[in-house]
NAD-dependent epimerase/dehydratase family protein (Rhizobium glycinendophyticum), 337 residues
Amino acid sequence: MRYFITGTAGFIGFHLARRLLAEGHEVTGFDGVTPYYNVKLKHMRHAALAQYPAFTPVIAMLEDRAALEEAVAKANPEIIVHLAAQAGVRYSIENPQSYLSSNVQGSWNIIDLAERHKVKHLMLASTSSIYGASPTVPFHETDRTDEPLTIYAATKKSMELIAHSHAHLHKTPTTAFRFFTVYGPWGRPDMALFKFVDRILNDQPIEIYGEGQMSRDFTYVEDLVEAIIRLSHVAPDESNRVADERVETLSRQAPFRVVNIGGGQPENLLDFVDIVEKAIGRPAKRQMLPMQQGDVPRTFASPALLQALTGYTPSTRLEEGVKAFVEWYIEARPELG
Ligand SMILES: NC(=O)c1ccc[n+]([C@@H]2O[C@H](COP(=O)([O-])OP(=O)(O)OC[C@H]3O[C@@H](n4cnc5c(N)ncnc54)[C@H](O)[C@@H]3O)[C@@H](O)[C@H]2O)c1
């Protein structure tokens, strides 16, 4: 199959592209290599993908409509997976503009081009952040999601809404998946696991927000990739409507569906720190801090719809995934600078 993936120099896009290339698919990877975090890591990811002859990298911004259009036309993809975004909850308080530009304007460009090039399935990365501070757990895709706490979440919700209206008008089969705290080797330097491991190895204190009373439904990146690939074969259509109406989100107005990708096994932040310490074999200096603006107290996925559609639920144990991250990080550290 021919895939067009945005965000291949990023954490998740890299893993998805690598798996597809290893399986013999053609992948065009579109990424602006933005300086939001260490670009060396982004270049390392693309260099690893370049070992596959079926990988075509394109370095450009989503907002550059002409460059995006040219890349999509050349790739002639059957499936588009849109992962490029300005990610990060906290940075969206400092720099909301980049979220509006990448996640709304940039996403619009890819949604519109997917239709013009008649792709079989458009897949868009959304986030658990759009559930906000909802006290009702687990989070079901059918829950209300109109009280986002950050501009990051608001832009992702906007993307979902724009994609729905576009799928209604033009019938492009579209799946928006909501990811839950993805982690693993080649992970993001702005996320807790990377920061904790880096600081513990450098004998520096780690900052624990919410006095440790937060919990997250962590998803191991390879489980996430497995779920994306399985979902890619289930383009939203009446023929695959799930019988249980409490979980199904397939629109009555459009070939559009929202799906959580998470295992439904939330972990308390302090237990997570224990697991990180064990994997490194060294205790952390813990600095307890209050919750930060925009933080949500918990995330907790209902995996019921994903399971019904694909027969799959992420299940890698946190101990195992954290260990894999630590091993990668220790090896990659000298090169990361
Ligand atoms: N990692 C998680 O836990 C998580 C959770 C929920 C949702 N998501 C979503 O999953 C997707 C992938 O996340 P990730 O963790 O791989 O993030 P990442 O930051 O590692 O990757 C995103 C990539 O997009 C590129 N990019 C950003 N803005 C761009 C633009 N305007 N034009 C072109 N390229 C641009 C960046 O250079 C980067 O390489 C994002 O859409 C993110 O919002 C991630």
